[in-house]
Design a protein that fits this description.
Elements (H helix, E strand, L loop, with lengths): L2 E6 L3 H4 L1 H6 L4 H9 L4 E6 L9 H5 L3 E5 L9 H13 L2 E5 L6 H7 L6 E13 L13 E11 L9 E8 L4 E10 L2 E6 L12 H14 L14
Length: 231
């Protein structure tokens, strides 16, 4: 069974009434609920010692999910170094929504990861542009989200190895919303949806994407992460 650690900054849900109403137990708890039937799941948050990402935790993690927004600068560089090292060894990494500005994602991309944005609660349609990719397994031609935050191009990231989703927004903007990368032995998936005041992670199709992406990003045969007892 794939061992998953869900890392969440966990600040909005404690400080913002609207976020707390949508995710009373934290975004990490809602994502854990989507994964725990088929995966070995643990959670970690910013204010835990070492942000909950100790050497021991990462040694036992096949895939790390990352959600952050307002406290990227509070993440210790030594933890970023640790996560980067594990990804290069073969640990999978799923970067969610505003995690595009996290230290670890910018480090792995080598770019600013800047984008356009607008918070207006308008509609988004995520078009499946690579229906043969494992992350798109079981989906139709698109995912409809009735209320969301807009992210728009240009998105300053390297050209993805594979692009699974392209978003269209009601204002006419488009965005590369499902980007696959490999760094060293590790697979990385950036997935755009997930604003803290909209119940995005309750959407069944979004939850399917997360399950598919975890399985896709899990360590591949022959990577250092698959040696030893967990092989």
């Amino acid at each position: 069974m794939v061992a998953v650690t869900i890392w969440n900054e966990f600040r909005h849900e404690q400080e913002d009434d609207d976020a707390a109403a949508v995710y009373p137990d934290g975004i990490h708890a809602t994502i854990a609920d989507a994964l725990e039937d088929d995966h070995e799941v643990r959670t970690a948050t910013l204010d835990e010692p070492e942000h909950g990402l100790t050497e021991a935790v990462l040694d036992e993690t096949d895939v790390l999910l990352w959600w952050g927004h307002i406290a990227h600068d509070e993440v210790a560089d030594e933890v970023v170094d640790r996560v980067q090292e594990r990804v290069l060894e073969g640990m999978g990494l799923l970067v969610l929504h505003s995690g595009h500005f996290s230290k670890v994602f910018k480090r792995l991309m080598g770019t600013t990861c800047n984008l356009q944005w607008r918070e207006d609660g308008a509609r988004e349609r995520l078009w499946v542009v690579d229906p043969g990719h494992p992350i798109a397994d079981g989906l139709g031609e698109s995912i409809e989200l009735p209320e969301t935050e807009m992210y728009g191009e240009p998105f300053d990231v390297p050209e993805p190895d594979r692009l699974v989703f392209t978003s269209w927004f009601e204002g006419g903007e488009v965005f590369r919303s499902g980007c696959c990368y490999r760094r060293g032995n590790g697979r990385i998936f950036y997935f755009r949806p997930g604003h803290e005041t909209y119940p995005i992670y309750e959407n069944e199709e979004v939850r399917r994407v997360l399950r598919n992406a975890v399985d896709w990003a899990s360590p591949t045969d022959g990577s250092p992460r698959t040696f030893g007892e967990r092989a």
